[in-house]
Task: structure prediction
Amino acid sequence: MIQSTGASSPVSPGRARCMMTSNMCGCREGRYGCTAVSTERCSVSTGLRSWMQPKQEGEFLIRHARVAPPAKKCAFVLTRDGRPVKVQRTIFSECFYTMAMDELWKATGDPRYQREAVEMMDQIIYWVRVNPTGLGQPQLSGAPKVDSMAVPMMLLNLVDQLGQDDNKMSRKYAELGEWCSQQILKHLQRDGQLVLENVSKDGTEIPGCLGRQQNPGHALEAGWFLLRYAIRQRNPELKTHIIEKFMVQPFHSGWDNENGGIFYFQDADKFCPTQLEWDMKLWWPHSEAMIAFLMGYSETKDPNLLNLFCQVAEYTFERVRKLFKAKQVKFPDMKHGEWYGYLNREGKVALSFKGGPFKGCFHVPRCLYMCEELLKALLVAS
Result:
């Protein structure tokens, strides 16, 4: 859950959490993501009963997340007592709801949570592949017909999530997984040299700044989603292709050689990106990069991938290295805990809050948990 600071209380830079009023909580990567991550952590801890708190969060979601039950559309923001404040015309709140419910099912064995996850998953698939009317998106005659990489990315992640340790679900969504992988791969453009965030419906580049938009962090996240898919499919050629095109290439083009860190947005033709925050260094691209390169190294034992993981980790955890007489901090706040989310181009804290309505407690704990598990496995294997 995204925590917020009372509007009447002064906010110190080190303790700032969320730029929202005191009675709101972000419902996309806040409650949904936090429930999923914390339950995932509990579900692998033998004998650990601390899933009771995530279960309470899950019950809150079942009671309050959907704006007008039995319809499936979920709120993006709720008041603290569960009243809807804002709804987005996308699938992402529903995706994180599905993720949270599936993790609760795996941790508790309560079939009600699995039923919630599957019913929401099937609704999302209908919106994406059959009829998006229920999302409330207006069909404007002048708007370009665009496929965003975010949609098949999220669906592929859910296919992986629901299929883990569940052969029935794996078979149910097998065709969807293949469709998602092909949809993501069509974002590899310009003779395989660039991953573009938006393409046309037929998989070709679209004109203008929207078509030239690159998001290195998104490409890296898509990379490890695809890598997990290739591993499940036992497809070594796809693994090699993904590591090169969705991990190594986007990282090298997106890394700031002067100041370190990964740029948020780029323009494929080297024009100035239209996003005002394009040159900032955010927590989540670095989190996804660490997962991607460590997973790639685990699969290939290519030392270059391990070096890239170390490069990102050294930038990310610079404050920890300060204990060993290293340079100044980047993301972690060693005094008050958690991570700063937004650094400027030079790597200094630009915004002091630790989360907002779009990004909260999700990418960081997922990264730390997954990297810990990957490193443990590597140590055991050695």
